[in-house]
Amino acid sequence: MPNANVKPATKSVVDYIAENADALAGVCDSLFWFGEPAMQEVRSAELLSGILEDGGFSVERGISGFPTGFMATYGSGEPVIAIHTEYDAAPNNSQKPGVAEHSAIIDGGPGHCEGHNVNGAVMIASAMAVRRAMEEHGLKGTLKVFGAPAEELVLARPYYVRDGYFDDVDVAFHPHLWDRFFTEYGVLQRAAVSAEFIFHGETAHAAMSPWDARDALDGVMLMDSGLAQYREHIRPGMSMHRVITDGGDQPNVIPSRAAIWWFFRDTTAEGAQELFEHGKKVAEGAALMTNTELEVVIKTAVWPVRGNQALAEALQRNIELVGMPEWTAEDQELARSIQNGAGVNATGLTEKVTPLTGPSPSIPAANDAGDVSWKVPMGRLWFPSNVPGVTFHHWSAGSALATEIAHKGGVAGAQALAATLIDCLTDKNLIANAKTTFADELAGTEYAPLIPDENTPPLDTNKDLMEKFRPLMEPHYADPPPKFR
Ligand SMILES: [Zn+2]
């Protein structure tokens, strides 16, 4: 890091994170080996919130009814700046770190193949660094740190926003790993509605008296066929995908209950809702055809993620200040072997930070950070903790996540994030500028949460899965991470 013109508080956070690189790496690895999927991040949330509590934050756990969610607060008064990120793994994504072929720690078990374990570690390290700098340099303001469970199901943050947790926040930041070091602005990801369609009928013996049954699985199949036909007519930018969550019990009992779970996506919140409404019509048609009753459960619904230009420019300055990690020959060797194993170009790790260009095109995935980004100006930081060319939720995206590659990228990410938080605490113009440009960016669009007022989090999600796998995963848990100093 060049020394010229660096604020003392910026130097403090950058140094603090470098000095606590082992603690950051320890958190990263602990979360990796916990490998807890959406809504089951019990140990992960306990570790992260515990570090912040020990570090002088006041912690509120279980916010918005999410047992594995939390808000940690330090300081008081304005400005109020927030960091939020996820720490969930995904089902059937178990992968041994540092191994350049598909090799599960536990066959069929959940695991981190996207990198939310590194996200959690980066959030904690930045928060601890900024809290220390606020004290040392007498910086006024409030730092709020949000643990957001179940990102893989885009669940928590719409609830947080709906319930007022971001009402007093001035600006927010969301760190997420990537294979490059960059930030961006514009509409970056898709909106999504997640809903389960449950068909209710009546059982009968499938051979003896099928005419006495009302087949709930037929309802599911016909809904699926209806939407498969409809795919031809959706607009570019829209997509939908599903799993059958209940297909009955055994072939000779016609199922009285069957269920199918859909994600409906679009570049706009309106479009995602429109697609969902069409899905409902198709489901009603399927229920009519099969003489079954339909129940629709909205699990969550999110706005597309947007990034604010003023905050992106601030992030970019700090990304360039911090620079890329110094990769060793071993890091590059591991990256290339993972790329070879995955059958993608063996380009090795990225060596240069990515410049900030104009508004980014949106990627087809969604993230529940979206709702935060329409409520307050949000900066999105992508930090370089993975291997270029690998695809998320594939074993190859899990292999580097508890190695030096993830750790070094995490240190750089935490430094750039913390330095930008310091800018927000020390430069009133930056926050004012973020707010003005944010108003222009929204161009009159009024944000309102898409989730119904009465919705509560689906607490049983992945419960059975973890009852099966947790005992098998526990022997692999890492040693507790070193403490932040
Ligand atoms: Zn993610």
Features:
13 helices, alpha+beta, 39% helix, 17% strand, 2 domains, binds zinc ion, Aminopeptidase, Alpha-Beta Plaits, four-stranded antiparallel beta sheet, 485 residues
What is the mean predicted local confidence, pLDDT?
97
Bound molecules: zinc ion
Care to count the β-strands?
A: 13
Give the termini separation. Answer: 22 Å
Strand content: 15-25%
Overview of the molecule:
It contains 13 helices and 13 strands. It is of the alpha+beta class and 485 residues long. The protein has two domains: 8-189 and 304-476, Zn peptidases (Aminopeptidase, 3-Layer(aba) Sandwich); 191-301, Alpha-Beta Plaits, CATH 3.30.70.360. A seven-stranded mixed beta sheet has the order 1-2-4-3-5-13-6, with helices on both faces. The radius of gyration is 23 Å and the shape is globular. The mean pLDDT is 97. Bound molecules: zinc ion (ZN). The site of zinc ion (ZN) has 4 residues, from loops.
